[in-house]
Description:
By secondary structure, this protein is an alpha/beta fold. Helices cover 37% and strands 17% of the residues. It contains five helices and five strands. The protein has a three-stranded parallel β-sheet, with helices on both faces. Strands 4-5 form a two-stranded antiparallel sheet. α2 (31-39) links the parallel β1 and β2. Residues 98-127 have low confidence and may be disordered.
Amino acid sequence: xxxxxxxxxxxxxxxxxxxxxxxxxxxxxxxxxxxxxxxxxxxxxxxxxxxxxxxxxxxxxxxxxxxxxxxxxxxxxxxxxxxxxxxxxxxxxxxxxxxxxxxxxxxxxxxxxxxxxxxxxxxxxxx
Length: 127
């Protein structure tokens, strides 16, 4: 866990995670700034690491904004632990993404591969 976007970016460089869970409302820089900074990195520096937005901002426009910024999932708070664990597992299996892939498909990376359910994004199998 990282207490800020800057420390989160440093952790990505040091640990090379398979996936990232990012709160949108962080101090100093928000989750949008974090993911934009991450996407500007080379793949070897974590620039293609899949990221889920975890947020209380759960409207349809919030979801679109998250995908446009470069997130692969949008998870609305509150979220139960079983659903959160499943989302993290799914995200860790997501293929590495290019910086413009999410912006090219703001509806959710592949249309029918992603759907909204009760404010939480549920991703189906990747073909």
